[in-house]
Design a protein that fits this description.
Blueprint lengths: L1 H34 L8 H13 L3 H20 L5 H17 L9 H21 L6 H12 L5 H19 L3 H21 L6 E7 L3 H11 L5 E6 L6 E10 L3 H11 L4 E7 L15
Antiparallel strand pairs: 1-3, 1-4, 2-3
Helix pairs in contact: 1-4, 1-5, 2-3, 2-7, 3-4, 3-6, 5-8, 6-7, 7-8, 9-10
Length: 291
């Protein structure tokens, strides 16, 4: 039994890292074939690295690694478990793919096509990385660190500000205002494609979980995802049996991890996944009254 469990775990880990590797490869293709050759900087560390490349000729992958490694080390101290080996792996693999595996050339000189297809391909790659429980560091890690230090600012709002600054800087450095506009298009398309790959167009997901092990599941969610869990009182109308229904709202990048937690504790749990288009409250966004 132990041998079987061990072999299944090895296979699962292999599949996860394979998925992250494929996702990083797709992201590298997007950067090398669409974004970088056309000076499009769709936010994030990759966008900033593209700008630095055209100013200093320092390779994009190396620049991303220079920015990401200190962030990773800092995140271990501040975020603890949220900075995993998968993040470090994704960060290094993406940088290696960009500089040493895929050749950089312009697939198309049309800036609109480059921004659209660059965004689509980038979103597919990042979506795969997220689906297999990884990240590529970058602004997501920076946003998580800032959020931990200044909780008044949500991760989503911090990411938006960082990406906006990067695309503005790109337009200023390249002295081409239209570059900023094309970068915004690419950023928007990549986010939408990421959402699509993550099974839904909302930025957050609501889970309703019905299980005989609701206590164990809620404790694990609180520990691993640092998300609040609400227990609703429910009753099966056929059996008339009362049981708890867990309600959890998570960011899209935490969706697959939550599924994994539930399945690991109770493979027979009944789970309902719903689309959430707006969440007001701790960990998401604050209500702002219109004047």
């Amino acid at each position: 039994m132990k041998k079987k469990y061990f072999s299944e775990k090895i296979i699962r880990i292999f599949v996860e890292y394979l998925g992250i590797t494929i996702g990083c490869a797709i992201m590298a293709i997007s950067i090398n074939l669409f974004s970088a050759p056309n000076k499009i900087a769709p936010g994030g560390i990759s966008g900033l690295a593209t700008v630095i490349y055209y100013v200093t000729k320092l390779p994009i992958g190396i620049t991303m690694l220079i920015f990401n490694l200190p962030l990773f080390i800092l995140s271990i101290k501040i975020l603890g478990k949220s900075a995993s080996t998968k993040t470090l792996y994704g960060t290094i693999v993406l940088s290696v793919f960009i500089d040493y595996v895929f050749e950089s050339f312009s697939f198309t000189k049309d800036l609109l096509l480059a921004s659209l297809f660059g965004g689509i391909v980038l979103g597919i790659g990042l979506g795969l990385v997220f689906r297999f429980g990884g990240t590529t560091g970058g602004t997501e890690l920076a946003a998580a660190i800032i959020n931990k230090i200044i909780p008044q600012f949500t991760i989503g709002s911090i990411l938006m500000v960082i990406d906006f600054i990067v695309v503005i800087v790109a337009g200023i450095v390249f002295e081409q205002p239209e570059i900023t506009l094309y970068s915004v298009i690419s950023l928007y398309v990549s986010i939408k494609m990421l959402d699509f790959i993550q099974e839904g167009l909302g930025y957050a997901k609501a889970f309703y979980i019905i299980s005989d092990y609701s206590e164990e599941i809620s404790n694990q969610i609180l520990q691993e995802l640092d998300r609040g869990v609400t227990a609703l009182q429910g009753q099966g109308m056929y059996t008339k049996e009362e049981r708890k229904v867990l309600l959890v709202v998570v960011h899209r990048s935490q969706m697959n991890k939550l599924k994994e937690i539930v399945h690991k504790i109770d493979s027979k749990a009944f789970v309902i996944l719903g689309e959430v288009h707006e969440v007001l409250g701790e960990g998401f966004k604050e209500y702002i009254k219109n004047s």
